[in-house]
Amino acid sequence: MEASVRNLVAKKVLNCCCGAFSDKWFDVSKRCGKQAEELKVEWGQPILPEMIDARLKTGQFDALTLVHNETSTGVMNPLPEIAQVMKKYPDVMFVVDCVSSMTAVKIDTDALGIDVLLAGVQKAWAMPPGLAVFAVSERALKKPRRISGRGYYFDSSRVQGEP
Fold this sequence. Notes:
Blueprint: H1 2-8, E1 13-17, H2 20-31, E2 36-40, H3 49-56, E3 63-67, E4 69-70, E5 75-76, H4 79-86, E6 93-97, H5 109-112, E7 116-120, E8 132-136, H6 138-142, H7 156-159
Parallel strand pairs: 1-2, 1-3, 3-6, 6-7
Antiparallel strand pairs: 4-5, 7-8
């Protein structure tokens, strides 16, 4: 979560909040010193594509975070429909937490246009906790070069062998 926020947010991030884990992403964004805004719904309700579209139309955001399956409430957000909306905003990075859905449901990262898909193995993978897995798009690998405040450990340009 922190790595994606540090490496992909230059302007402002829209954090979709519908439970404890998605609320955490909003907290992470603020603690990383990023401008962040919540798209908040009542716990137990999904984030709807039209809600995202209305916020992104403002042009304020360069990243959006979404928890695909919000474990704390059991809500699975409509990822394919949200991905369709995201295609209208090619300058907005699409970051998806799939901790409790990766391996449990099919998620075609490239077809959906997801820039960062992240998960831990402790839920849907049914493995002991402690391992994070992620997929990163080409455009998400290039964006950090233009972002300040990436930190040290989470600076993806360093992982790519850049100074």
